[in-house]
Amino acid sequence: MALVAIVLLGDASAASQGQPEVPCTDSHVCAKYNLVCILNGTNSSHCGHCIKGRNGECEELYGSEYECSDDGACKRKALWPLDWHDYATLAVLMAGGVVAAGGGIGGGGVFIPVLILLGGFKTSDAIPLSNVMIFGSSMASMFLVLRQSHPHADKPLIEYDLAMVMQPLALSGTVVGVVLNTVFPDWVVLILLILVLLSTTYRTTLKGVKEWKKEREGAEEEEEDPLMENSSINVRAHTEVSVRKLQSMYEDEKRNPFMKQLILLSSLILVVVHSLFIGGRGKSVIGIGPCSALYWSMFMLIFPILFLITFMTVRYLLLSEKLKKALDYKYLPGDIHWNKKNSGIISLLSFGAGILSSLLGIGGGMILSPLMLELNVLPAVTAATSVCMIFFTSSSASVQYAILSRILWDYGGVLFVIGLFSGIIGQLGLSWIVKKYKKMSLIIFTVVLIIGCSTILLGVTGGLRVLNKMRHSAYMGFNHYCPS
Predict the structure, then answer these.
(1) Model confidence pLDDT, tens digit, residues 34-72
(2) What is d(CA 243, CA 66) in angstroms, rounded to the nearest whole number?
(3) How many CB atoms lie within 10 A of CB 387?
(4) Alpha carbons 256 and 241: distance in angstroms, whole number
């Protein structure tokens, strides 16, 4: 979420520095420019910088926690000394971070509403801070996950093959989602948000109940899934060469796959550089004008590159699958039997998940984790793979927010540390509970809890934003992506 939101935030940042005069009736009209309404007369008012010492301007627009700074910008008051808002906000974020880390979900759908509703942050401050906390949590979780093994074999817990297919297309989808987020009015986004999260919560709950019943009954058989192809294994005498190849394949799986990690990192760096180059509707780091011919050329360039990465990955997986069948490879519970059909469907769903994550302003993990569970990937593997993808996206987004000077560092430093501790407690705590009670379904129900809470909290914050616009008779229609 944070990775794609910087493009939208860049617009507000640029506007506050070079925006032509915008007429206004009250400060809420100026909110998207981070300015206030300057009343010059009965029929002459425009958005402009606040003036320090003139009371009420920043408080009206952003709340009592904001005040006018020396440079004419409405800025959050310093963290120290802490007040009750800060103590309550940090405590709730810590609790939410522990639960989110256990389920392998970033938690942005909980963190952002808590920062806005309880902490009194404006949205453009809450999003970067949420991302910094997710970065801290995912860093700690990633460190622990890399030391864990698959529950049924001596190999990494992270399903890198699946991540290599999902992440590039999900990232390319976020680029499309940013455009749609800019064009769609808040009420459309709110309706889509509630529908998507309610559907995801419902389907993931059914998956959790199914897993819980299977655990209670002690069933060992694998579930059938239309996207999974239960390949028949040829039982034949292996030649000495095939035995060596099969043994080599098993040995390779035990190692940390550096090349696969490099592919994931490369696709992410491409999107980061692409975002900084085009600058969204804000300022490009290389001076590309918004909506110019060069802008749209650069905008479209990212798609064939990421699609090519996915195509080559799928081709590699299909060839690997063919070799596995020839060697009578022993599949583990939850392994994906790659074929043209399921690789195409997974690719399409990943692209759609990327669009939805950036369009609706939620983390990709809230959509991709349930998708992996739908594919019958083991809950522990799903959580670990989700953590891996979240770590890459949140780390790069944090760098971009820092470049754009969007992070309140006093709060950001504290939230990063809270993220680290919540990630450690969440990962170790839930892992201990799952091993003690042998209930993998607990991971699924943790995902359900986070998505369910996010549905309520994001629904409330989105609803309040829509009502506020209605109360001030603000424009409620579709917007133009390019400035007129």
Answers:
(1) 666 665 554 556 677 777 666 566 776 666 777 777 766
(2) 68
(3) 29
(4) 25
